[in-house]
Every structure is written in C-alpha cells, then in structure tokens.
Amino acid sequence: MEKLRLNVPLLRKRVPNLTSAARSVGLRPATVSNLCTGKIPVGRSEVRTLVALASLAQCTLDELILRGETVEMIETKIKTVDLFAPIVKGGTVGLVARPGMGQLVVLAELFHRLKKEGYKTIFLMPEENHPELMDLTGEVDVVVDSIDKAYEEMKAVAPKQDVIFTADRSHVLTGEIYDLQQKIEETEVQSVTTILLDLKGASVDEDLPYGPLETLWQFDADLAARHKFPAVNPIYSTSSVLEVAHLEQTHLTVQQKAQKLLRRYRELRSLVNVKGIDGIPASEVQVYNRGERLEAYLTQPFFVAEDFTGIKGEEVALETTLNDIRKIIDGGADSQTVESLNFIGKLSV
Questions:
Q1: Residue 219 in contact with residue 232, Cβ under 8 Å?
Q2: Where does a domain end: 39, 67, 95?
Q3: Domain range spanning residue 187?
Q4: Which residues contact 28 (CB under 8 A, 6 or more apart)?
Q5: How many whole angstroms separate alpha carbon 120 and alpha carbon 249?
Q6: Element containing residue 11 per DSSP (H, E)
Q7: Element (H, E) at 96
Q8: Where is each ATP synthase A/B type C-terminal domain found (predicted)?
Q9: Using an 8 Å Cβ cutoff, are 106 and 228 in contact?
Q10: What is the pLDDT of residue 185?
C-alpha cells in the first residue's frame, strides 16, 4: 500500500493560524495535529477532513497529500526519541511540557550529540529573561537575539552544513517563525530542522500550540515525578517519519508493540498503586512486569548530566534499541530486576 502523508510545510505556509482556521470549518485541532504528525494515518482519515484542509490551504488534494516521498530521520541515539517520535530532517519539532519536566536537559543533550555529528546549532533567545537557559545555551554553537541574525547565521553555513534551529513559542506567536520558514523555503538555505519549545508551559493546554508539526514530543508529568528521564511520553509523542515508505517496517512494528505494552502497563500500574500487585488478575502480572522493565529500559543517562548523576552518558543506536525492546516484550529480560534496567544504555542480555 502506498504511504501517504500531509504536506505539512504547505499547511504551515498557507494556514499559519491553523487552530482557529480548523475550528472555523468544523475540524478538531487535535485531529489536524494528529494527521500532521502521522499519529492518524492519512489513509484512515475522513475525506471531508482532507477536503476541508485543502480548502483552508487553497490547494488541491494532490498538493496537500504527499505520496511515497522520502523523509529522512535524524538519529539521536536517544532511545525513547528515536523509537516513538523521531526527528524529521528539515521538519519542525514541537515540545509540549510544563516547566520542570526536563525538556531543557533533553534539548541540551540533543545539541551535544548533534554537534558531534556535524550539525550547526543556533538558538534564538526569547525577549524575556530566562536564567534556566544558561546550561542549554552552553551547548549551542551560536546564540542570537533576532530572527534576522538567525537567518544570517544559516546563510553563512548553507549548503555546507545542516542546521538545528531552536526558538521559544513566543516567536511563534508573533509570526516570526513562520516568516523565517517561508524565507528559508524561498532561498538557498536548505536543511534547517526547527525545534520549538515553550518556556512558560502554556502549550500543554492547547491542541496546536505551534501550528502544523512533523514531530511532537509530549513530556509526561508522572515520568518526571518518578525521575524516569527523559520524560518523553511514549504514548502521545509521535512523528510523521513513522508513516512514510522508507522506514523499516521493523521500526513501526516494534514501536506499536511497545506502545501497546506501555499503555496497558500504565492502566495496571494505577491498580497496583491502590491494591498492590495482588490486586490485578494473575494473567496480567506478566504484562505488568514486562511493561515496568520496558519503562525502566527507556530511561537513559545523558552526557550533559554526568556531573550531576555520576553516571556516564550512553548512546544507543536505533537498531540496538529495536532489538532490545523486542527482547523485553518477548520475555528476554524477565530475569533482570527493574533497578538493573534503570539508566543503562543497551541490554546486557
């Protein structure tokens, strides 16, 4: 079956205020967001939804729907990111988190890793003062204070070097990010991957806080409270990479099985917290135990946190992550304790 996906850059360009525009034609913003990130496959969406989006973007359905086009994934070697919500190279990533959930540490780690891979990292400072950004900006190649300066930095390295550009949601609300992305598309600057965060945490309460996205990282308060870092929610984080033809089918299969196990584990955990392990059916104990081990395995020590944790940072290739998770799901780690799987790299079995 031919893989289909929405033309997110086109939507971003033609319908910058997609939230209100979607509501005006009777579409739920959450549905539109899920279509953009691939959580809802285009092939399973309602025709009226696609027609309404095409009407908003003033384009044809053929222009709105991309068929079998190659999308490249940026492999970060962060297990939970690469498995559940890979970065689309040249796309836009949106971080949805309250303050204190660890999004800045994940970004600092991402910059640390991608700089070693040859990416140029550029951070646009928000207008308001945010002291918590000090550690993050220490991992960035270039810090700028205006959109124009960010664009000049991009032009200076294009097309020799790929760029990771990061900005706060405040610049989205002013429309500056949309103007920059349109300028990038119209000039010689290529391969700019944009990451948007929300330092105030208001994005948690909105369906489309950044407009159309290729990748969404939803941070999880429960994981953060239990120090299960990175606290990227494995159920609600998603990426359009998972719905395109070039991706190995193994990745999608393992991702879906892992989500199914973790979803059920979370339901059972609520019961165990109240009634204890004896409060769930005997037939579900194995599911609970394997889900608990998978959740522990998805934690990971970061290089940028070594001074605080005393644990050496770990990189795990996607292929290794997929093999390890299959082992956990199939019972290959049943003999290991949960504690032994916390903050490790790859499995030792």
A1: yes
A2: 67
A3: 73-243
A4: 22, 207
A5: 31
A6: helix 8-14
A7: strand 92-96
A8: 246-330
A9: no
A10: 81
Contact 97, 103 (CB under 8 A): yes
- pLDDT surpassing 70 at residue 1: no
Claim to verify: residue 15 and residue 133 sit in the same structural domain: no
Give Cβ neighbours of residue 283 (< 8 Å, ≥ 6 apart).
none
* Whether residues 80 and 35 fall in one domain: no
What is the per-residue pLDDT across 54-83, written as a single tens digit (0 to 9) for each?
A: 999 999 999 999 887 678 899 999 999 999
Q: Are residues 91 and 151 in the same domain?
A: yes
Question: How would DSSP label each residue in 210-271?
Answer: TSS-SEEEEB-HHHHHTT-SS-B-TTT-EEGGGGSTTS-HHHHHHHHHHHHHHHHHHHHHHH
Q: Are 215 and 92 in contact (CB under 8 A)?
A: yes
As beta bridge partners, residue 23 has: none
Identify whether residues 51 and 135 lie together within a single domain.
no
Question: Structural domain tally of the chain?
Answer: 3
Crossing angle between the packed helical segments 282-297 and 249-275, to the nearest 10 degrees: 120
Choose the final residue of a domain: 204, 227, 243: 243
User: In the chain, what percentage of residues exceed pLDDT 90?
Assistant: 81
